[in-house]
Amino acid sequence: MRARAAVLTEVKKPLEIWEVDIDPPREGEVLVRVVAAGVCHSDLHYIQGDLEAVLPAVPGHEGAGVVEAVGSGVTRFQPGDPVLFVFRAFCGQCFYCLNGRPALCDFSNPIRRTGRMFDGTTRFHRDGQDVHHILGVSCFAEYTVVPEQGLLKLPADVPLDRAALVGCGVTTGVGAVLFAAGVRPGESVLVIGCGGVGLNVVQGAALVGAGPIIAADIVPQKLEWARQLGATHTVNPKEQDLLEAVRSLTEGRGADYAFEVIGRAETIQQAYAATRKGGTMVVVGLTPMGTAIPLDPLDLLRSEKTIKGTVYGSANLPRDIPRLIELYRLGQLKLDELISRRLRLEEINQGFEAMLAGSVARSIIVL
Ligand code: APR
Ligand code: ZN
């Protein structure tokens, strides 16, 4: 079949809309009609070359759609099923999966590394040339083929544009609080960077009854959204010393938990400095490959701080994603509020421009 896809042809260039040939799903694969795809900063990392991908390739890893066809051996999905893409397809059987940590499963490493499906070929082509997959999702396209392990079934009554956000930003942000850090009621939280993911760290902190919840961002509108999602205090580090502000809100100690949700060495250091003795600094933002931060082991020892990384919110994906969707249905998790703009596929580069300009929480591509 033929379909339109947004293709990254070269780093630091806008995506191009190509008409691509899409092969039918092979063994263990599923063809999905994409309904909605979120514009996430991680896609921008590929565009900017901060993360490596085999090009040309179709980005997009936060999305939802409807199963169009299944390959041989696929028994869990049928045409017509509403599904969410999981950008770390997991096997369900390895040490990590059995320990409730599917995001650490190595199963889909070959797809991530090569941009090809497990059999070494791609399902996207143009003029006989291979067009590669990114993270095994590639949902900036009208149709995509993914391994069945990279899908979760969605309830029929949840709007797919809202559900799409749970595929990355919501689970990553809310999960960082609930599952990675395990924040408890009354504990203090600092969130540095209130974009699509950081706002979800804020709402995760509100969900567990943390407080104070201090949101920091250099864009005033982001701070406004952070307040709407449950931040009790906001700080613009351009106008106020962040460390001083955090200390004054935490009896001079620093935050119990400080989340960095940008992916920059300087802000990771700020988060570490703003963490209280015995507290935990959580790195959520993706730094460009090769980034290093200085660490004073003596300070680490004396302060007894914990430095924690988290991927995909450290969520037990098949257990926790349905829970997050259920919290949305119960009105306890905000999804509608996160969508600032809806764009058509041809307008996708505007989504990245708006992200860089700081004018959106999340843009959604509606197909
Ligand atoms: N101090 C505070 N906030 C900052 C600073 C700074 N020095 N620099 C940038 N920001 C804010 C931006 O204003 C923006 O609101 O960080 C936010 C980043 O948000 P987005 O660009 O929307 O990115 P998002 O999709 O939320 O992803 C954040 O998490 O999963 C990773 O790959 C993702 O690294 C990315 C990070
Ligand atoms: Zn993402």
Distinct ligands, ions and cofactors found in the model: adenosine-5-diphosphoribose, zinc ion
Percent of residues in helices: 25-40%
The structure class reads alpha/beta
Terminal residue distance:
17 Å
The H/E string reads EEEHEEEHHEEEEHHEHEHEHEHEHEHEHE
CATH architecture of the largest domain: Alpha-Beta Complex
Domain module tally: 2
Mean pLDDT over all positions: 97
SS strand fraction = 25-35%
CATH topology of the largest domain: Quinone Oxidoreductase, Chain A, domain 1
CATH homologous superfamily annotation of the largest domain: Medium-chain alcohol dehydrogenases, catalytic domain
The unreliable regions are none
Biggest β-sheet strands, sense, barrel: 7 strands, mixed
Number of helices: 12
Layout: helices, strands, pairs:
Layout: E1 2-7, E2 16-22, E3 29-39, H1 41-48, E4 57-58, E5 63-70, E6 82-85, H2 95-98, H3 109-114, E7 124-126, E8 129-133, E9 143-147, E10 151-153, H4 160-164, H5 169-181, E11 189-192, H6 198-207, E12 213-216, H7 220-228, E13 233-235, H8 242-249, E14 255-260, H9 265-273, E15 275-283, H10 297-303, E16 306-309, H11 317-329, E17 339-343, H12 348-357, E18 362-366
Parallel strand pairs: 4-8, 11-12, 11-14, 12-13, 14-15, 15-16, 17-18
Antiparallel strand pairs: 1-2, 2-7, 3-5, 3-9, 3-18, 5-6, 6-10, 7-8
The structure holds adenosine-5-diphosphoribose and zinc ion.
Describe this structure in words.
This protein has 2 domains: 198 residues, Medium-chain alcohol dehydrogenases, catalytic domain (Quinone Oxidoreductase, Chain A, domain 1, Alpha-Beta Complex), CATH 3.90.180; 138 residues, NAD(P)-binding Rossmann-like Domain (Rossmann fold, 3-Layer(aba) Sandwich). It is built from 12 helices and 18 strands. Strands 3, 5, 6, 9, 10, 17 and 18 form a 7-stranded mixed sheet that branches. It has a 6-stranded parallel sheet with strand order 13-12-11-14-15-16, with helices on both faces. Strands 1-2-7-8-4 form a 5-stranded mixed sheet. Strand 12, helix 7 and strand 13 form a beta-alpha-beta unit. Helix 5 crosses helix 6. It is globular, with a radius of gyration of 20 Å. 53% of the residues are buried.
